[in-house]
Amino acid sequence: MNSPVRLSERAMLGDLDDFVECCGDHAWYHADGWISLQFAADNLQALAERWGLVAEIGQDGVQAVMAEAFAPAPELPSDYVLQLVKRFELDDPRDRWKWTGKLPPAPEKASEPRPRPIPQSTVDAFNYVVSLGDADRLRKWLRDHTSVAHMLVSEAA
Questions:
Q1: How far apart are CA 41 and CA 103, in angstroms?
Q2: Given pLDDT bands bounded at 50, 70 and 90, which one contains residue 146?
Q3: Can you give the pTM of this predicted structure?
Q4: Helices 146-156 and 120-132: crossing angle, nearest 10°?
Q5: Model confidence pLDDT, tens digit, residues 9-51
Q6: pLDDT digits (tens, 9 = 90+) for 72-119
Q7: Which residues contact 154 (CB under 8 A, 6 or more apart)?
Q8: Residue 9 DSSP symbol
Q9: d(CA 103, CA 99)
Q10: Are 97 and 104 in contact (CB under 8 A)?
């Protein structure tokens, strides 16, 4: 007669190196979309418990091994990219100091904002009010459009 397996007994199926390999396999399965992250983590946790790794290295150790396997590999730029960036920065006087060892240049002064062009509809409205020949109405219109009045008056003169 078969007796049920007791989960408290340690199965001598693998050690820490085998667990690291299993973590890498599960990470690959997850990256390819074969299994969900939750399924992979649950499988690996059950495996660590069954192999006695939780008792051996602790739950934090098991989690660290799993996290390392699932961590994305850092994207390191190629040498070509580094050379390209270096060349661009050497060509730009604002960034050249990063490679020459000199002090960075003083920050540039903020230039005055360029005036925005007056919308054609505003110019047409101004010309219409002028064509009416009513000085009070023109004065009132200019008061309502103070942001562009000085430019319109100087153009009309």
A1: 51
A2: confident
A3: 0.42
A4: 70
A5: 554 677 889 999 999 999 999 989 999 999 999 999 999 999 8
A6: 877 766 788 888 888 999 999 888 888 888 888 887 777 777 777 888
A7: none
A8: S
A9: 10
A10: yes
Give the angle subtended at the CA of 152 by the CAs of 146 and 157, to the nearest 5°: 130
Query: For tokens 């495996």, what's the residue?
Result: 47
Backbone angles phi, psi at 147, to 5 degrees: -70, -25
Q: How far is CA 9 from the centre of its chain?
A: 48
- Residues 124 and 157 sit within 8 Å (Cβ to Cβ): no
Tokens of residue 113, six digits? 């904002």
Q: How far apart are CA 49 and CA 81, in angstroms?
A: 45
Render pLDDT for 65-85 as a digit per residue (tens, 0 to 9).
999 998 887 776 678 888 888
Side chain identity at residue 65, one-letter code:
V
